[in-house]
Amino acid sequence: MSGLATKVPGVAAPPQDQQARHRSAITPLGFGVPAAVVLVAMAIYPLVVLFQMSVSDVGPSNIVGGWSFVGLDNFAGALGDPETWYALWRTLGVCAVLLTSNLVLGFICASVLAEPGRGSGAVLGLMVFIWALPPLVSGSVWKFLLDDSGALNSVLGVVGVGPVPWLSSPAAALWTVAGVVAWSALPFSTLILRGAMLAVPKEVLEAAAIDGAGFWTTRVRIVLPLLRPTMWILAILTVIYAFKSFDFVYVLTEGGPGSSTNTLPVLSYYTAFTQFDMSTGATVAVLSMVVVAVCAVPYVRRINAEAPQ
Amino acid sequence: MRSRLPVLALALLLATSGPAISACAISSVAASSPDTTVLTFWQYYDGTQKEWLEAEVQRFEERNPGVEIELVQVVGSQQDQKLLASVATGTTPDLFINNIVVDFPTLVAGGVMLDLTPYWESFPDADAFPDHATWEDGGRIYNLMSYTNLLGLYYNQDILDEYGLAPPSTLDELQAAVETIKADGRYEGIALSGAADVEGAWLFAPQLLGLGIGYCNLAESAQQVTDAFRRIAAWRETDALPRAAATWDQNAAWQQFMTGRYAFALNGNWQLGNVKEAGFRYGTAQFPAPPGGRSRVFPGGEGFAIGSKSQHPDLAWKFLEQLMSPESGLAVYRAAGSIPLHEQAAAAPEIREDPLVAPFVAATRDAAPWPNNPNTAAMQKALGTAVSSVISGEQPPEDGARDAIEGVAEAREQGGGGCA
After folding, report:
1. What is the C-alpha separation between B270 and B91, in angstroms, rounded?
2. What is the spatial distance between Cα A62 and Cα A65, in angstroms, rounded to a whole number?
3. Where are the domains of chain A?
4. pLDDT tens per residue across span A133-181
5. Considering only CA atoms, which of B215, B171, B253, B105 is closest in space to residue A147?
6. In B64-170, which residue ranges form alpha helices assigned H by DSSP?
7. Does residue B409 share a domain with residue B275?
8. Domain identity same for B87 and B234
9. Are residues B57 and B126 in the same domain?
10. Which is it for strands B147-148 and B339-340: parallel, antiparallel or unpaired?
11. Does B229 lie in the same domain as B119?
């Protein structure tokens, strides 16, 4: 705030004041330099290379340089390949499951856990634990549980339900994987929504109670509309998360059986790093990024709108 | 402000020099004394194979004072990317292993490997190795194999005895045996990897290789390819092959066999050490031959190469000579069950007279050649995806065969069109 000194007309500022003003103008820039360097090195530069790859012909023989420019040929090739479109639909399927889970189940869980109690604390602790688990670890555990002869099917067998091909059936695998991804994302959405619920003024809830509204009526009719901005942001973050979800698919099915769980990130990875068709892999990644960028615009707008002026 | 400048400068220096520092750390290892020469060796072994390599390094260092070999553990699936990048920075390792099934065409096309032809031509034991021990591109040798890993058939002797069955030598016999066993409903049929990647392709290919069909002539043999896909679809429909095999890698398939519920497993000789832990009697046989054909599989295993930017290629070759020796070949057999390719080692009584190993040794004599195309990995991925989709029921066998043929042809074309 010292930099906002009031200027008095007709009185020249002393040289020391000018230096101080100059310093205070430069200091924030100085603080920003390391962050800017890291951002350029770790995010901007790789993005530039990714875009460059997507408009070049890059294979194993020229991966280190000498890329020839091919314009939009790679995009035409990727968009003309039915597998890209199948992968997009699968990604949208995962996205739909995640949205349902994060918004509906997340709201229900948050409503229950927003109530004080020992049980709530324990469940919240467990959720944080699940959220913090590396996908490689939790994914491997789920793979074991969901195997055709795994623990889940053994339990189902006890109650007379035949083994369900959770991961081995092309019809079920995508939804199973989406379910596991949703399971891992649920704690995050619950914690976010619970935090927003706790910020709802108590007077509003008390007024609803005086008017005779029950617990769920209050949650749905009073709290839910108040959470709408948070829900919007959560929905956008969920879409972004769905379009970059790779680890669980890789651990659980590696894109199979067949190509039934080949989502856009998985397709991009296998094309680039197994087949070494870097150009197409980069192109698919860029196409995914376009979707994410479209979602990021309203997200940034909302964040800016909610930031204190 | 004056006092902050050096801090900012240091932060900038660290941020900008980070990649360079990490690159140096991986490509050049500090010698323990000024007179010591250090060779870097990138490898992704674990378990018994790693123990074998560490013992070889120790033996080499004892025989060659002043030379150290620094083993750098690399994640196998990331090694190709790192090696390709190391060419640009001139920091290839002195030595590295590579999976010949997927890595070699990519690495040789990327200029990662040193031409070993002059070394090999002056190697006294060169004649003691079969042709597939050397991996060539354009008539030049870039990769050497001291041992090989191949596929074969494992069977549960207890189950076969229960039904009075002999180990099958053909796919038809295998199918008949499995039908007999499955009819009783107490045991499962075949455990194999049908994953939608190179592993699924690797396990499926022998059904065609024995008929003289490989990646290079898939399209010309569409009927036989379709028949092979129909066979695995039939295995699936009769429950001889579980649907879950569509997602099993070779380790997962092996774990299923080791439960004792499966009569057969198609897997590699690297499981010979693990099979000793089975709670049942077992045996091995060559991969069952397709109808009208012979038993034939692709040779697998790791190749050894010298980095194209190595500063010490002669020393690196000296270590490769040791790895190619009969002593080293026997050592890798004892440690990991891998089949040595040096004729002297392969003829050792402990290998020749072991009935469990014999089928794999026999398979080395007639191993199928790999296609010579930088897109071999993509060709395998296309075949593996089709295999997985048919096993899982995602596609009928006819569509799977068509997709496999088209996918392999497309990958081959993208790799320049070459093959044989």
Report:
1. 32
2. 5
3. 72-306
4. 999 999 999 998 998 888 999 999 999 888 899 999 999 999 999 999 9
5. B253
6. 76-89, 104-109, 117-121, 157-162
7. yes
8. no
9. yes
10. antiparallel
11. no
With 80 as the cut, is the pLDDT of residue B259 above it? yes
- In whole angstroms, give the CA distance from residue B45 to residue B51: 9
Q: In what order do the strands lie in the sheet with B302-306?
A: B67-73, B37-43, B95-99, B302-306, B140-144, B134-137
- Structural domain contains residue B76: yes
Can you give the pTM of this predicted structure?
0.78
User: What DSSP line would sit under B128-144, residue for residue?
Assistant: GS-GGGEEEETTEEEEE
Shortest Cα distance from B202 to chain A (angstroms)? Answer: 15
> Are both B284 and B312 inside the same structural domain?
no
**CA count, 13 A, side-chain hemisphere, B111:** 14
Check CB contact of A136 with chain B, cutoff 8 Å: no
Q: What is the average pLDDT value for chain B, to the nearest integer?
A: 89
Q: CB distance B385–A169 less than 8 Å? A: no
Residue B391 forms contact with A (CB below 8 Å): yes
**What is the predicted pLDDT for the residue at A277?**
85
Grade residue A16 by pLDDT with cuts at 50, 70 and 90: low
Residues of A in contact with B11 (CB under 8 A): 33-34, 37
- Give me the pLDDT at residue A39, please: 86
| CATH for B207 | 3.40.190.10
Task: Give one DSSP letter per residue of A97-165, joined into a string.
Answer: HHHIIIIIIHHHHHHHHTS-SHHHHHHHHHHHHHHHS-HHHHHHHHHHHTSTTSHHHHHHHHTTPPPP-
ipTM at complex level: 0.71
Angle, vertex CA B65, rays to CA B126 and CA B122, nearest 5: 20
Residue B125 corresponds to which tokens in the numbers above?
């034991």
| Co-location of B72 and B201 in the same domain | no
In this prediction, residue A296 carries a pLDDT of 80
Q: Scanning every residue of chain A, which has its alpha carbon at the shortest distance from the alpha carbon of B198?
A: A274
Q: What is the mean pLDDT of chain A?
A: 88
Interchain CB distance below 8 Å, B243 and A59? no
d(CA B138, CA B140): 6
Do B135 and B195 reside in the same domain of the chain? no
Locate tokens 């898939």: which residue? Answer: B218
Q: What is the CATH number of domain A72-306?
A: 1.10.3720.10
Contact call for A64 and B87, based on CB within 8 A: yes
Whole-number pLDDT of residue B415? 79
How many structural domains compose chain B?
Answer: 2
Given an 8 Å threshold on Cβ–Cβ distance, is A258 in contact with B110? no
* DSSP for chain A, written as a single string: -TT-PPPPTT-PPPHHHHHHHHHHHHHHHHHHHHHHHHHIIIIIHHHHHHHHHHTEE--GGGTTS-PEE-TTHHHHHHHH-HHHHHHHHHHHHHHHHHHIIIIIIHHHHHHHHTS-SHHHHHHHHHHHHHHHS-HHHHHHHHHHHTSTTSHHHHHHHHTTPPPP-TTTSHHHHHHHHHHHHHHHHHHHHHHHHHHHHHTS-HHHHHHHHHTT--HHHIIIIIIHHHTHHHHHHHHHHHHHHHHH--HHHHHHTTT-STTTT--HHHHHHHHHHTS--HHHHHHHHHHHHHHHHHHHHHHHHHHHHHS--
Q: Smallest Cα–Cα separation from B88: which of B403, B367, B309?
A: B309
Q: Give the domain extent around B185.
A: 151-297+370-414
Res B12: pLDDT? 36
pLDDT digits (tens, 9 = 90+) for A207-225: 999 999 999 999 999 999 9
- Cβ distance of B109 and A167 shorter than 8 Å: no
What pLDDT, on a 0 to 100 scale, did the predictor assign at position B33?
Answer: 67
φ/ψ of B196, rounded to 5, equals -80, 50
- Say what the pLDDT of residue B281 is: 98
Are B177 and B198 found together in one domain?
yes
B106 touches chain A (CB under 8 A): yes
